[in-house]
Write a structure and sequence with these properties.
The chain is mainly beta and 179 residues long. It has no helices and 14 strands. The protein is elongated and about 95 Å long.
């Protein structure tokens, strides 16, 4: 999604009326405000399109119109490829991921970031940069690991993997003798 704002220059004193139009994607906000939110169309990998976004502004006497062309590409394809297992004992787990842009070109690991979340806690940033990532899981539960990658156009793609930590780390205590 993206925000677009019309900043017309009209003589002061009269109210302005806005009318936005888009030929691709979805207008998520009112077409009659000075600022709109637009969602680009979903595209298959390897596809690129040009979307026209236009606004007409009038004060009831004069009208100004502006149209822009926005190049739209598909989001990068991001995959967490390792590990293939989904259930683990507590401890260090290393993940490996890949990302490709809309032209199926590999995205540099420098443009990747890793995140971890639980069922009850939001994502926390784990690491910026790198096609591999290691995290120490201490508690039982379900976790989601996310790999985010930016292509050269700053378009972001995300891949996720859900894992379960199935056993708490064993604890041993010696209780006898008492002294």
């Amino acid at each position: 999604t993206a925000l677009y704002e019309a900043k017309p220059r009209f003589p002061p004193g009269l109210p302005l009326t806005y009318k936005w139009t888009v030929d691709r994607g979805t207008l998520l906000s009112s077409a009659t405000e000075s600022i709109i939110t637009w969602r680009s169309p979903a595209l298959s990998p390897g596809v690129t399109q040009v979307a026209s976004i236009a606004v007409s502004v009038t004060d009831g006497i004069g009208t100004a119109r502006k149209e822009i062309q926005v190049r739209v590409t598909s989001a990068p394809t991001v995959s967490i490829t390792q590990p293939t297992a989904t259930a683990f004992e507590p401890g260090l787990i290393t993940f490996t991921g890949t990302a490709r842009d809309y032209l199926n070109t590999a995205i540099s690991p420098d443009s990747m970031s890793w995140y971890v979340a639980t069922d009850t806690q939001p994502f926390v940033h784990g690491q910026t940069g790198g096609a591999t990532f290691t995290w120490r899981f201490l508690s039982q539960g379900s976790y989601t690991v996310a790999l985010e990658a930016f292509d050269n156009n700053r378009v972001v793609g995300t891949g996720t993997k859900t894992i379960a930590i199935v056993n708490a780390r064993p604890v041993c205590a010696i209780t006898q003798p008492l002294n």
